[in-house]
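Appendix B. One record, verbatim.
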Amino acid sequence: MSNDISLLRQAFVSQRQFFDDQNFPRGFSRSGNFTLLEASILEQHGVVLKGLHNKTLAPQNEQQQQFVAVVSGAQEPTNAIERAWVKYLKLTTCKAKFHTLFGRSKISSPTPVSQDYYAESDSL
């Protein structure tokens, strides 16, 4: 099967652009998670890819059938469109890990210094 991007783009033609304002409010290309090619693929073909993923669209050709097999986990992604969608799914469905520098969730405030310990003779 050919991995030529122009042939792949013809296999996943969509009439509308795909936007995910919930996860990427500034767009795919400005999110910093996708390359320009991946962002272009998601914007131009994301409606069809999402339909195939959700099974609201039936595969119309061999490339779309292979895409459904990749999304279901039966195959590994072999072309740019499949890799872009798998990356999109990973970023939107996996929980992000958050690391902190502190082991406790709440930092205790320092104890106030009592004035009782100082005498007037201790002044500078």
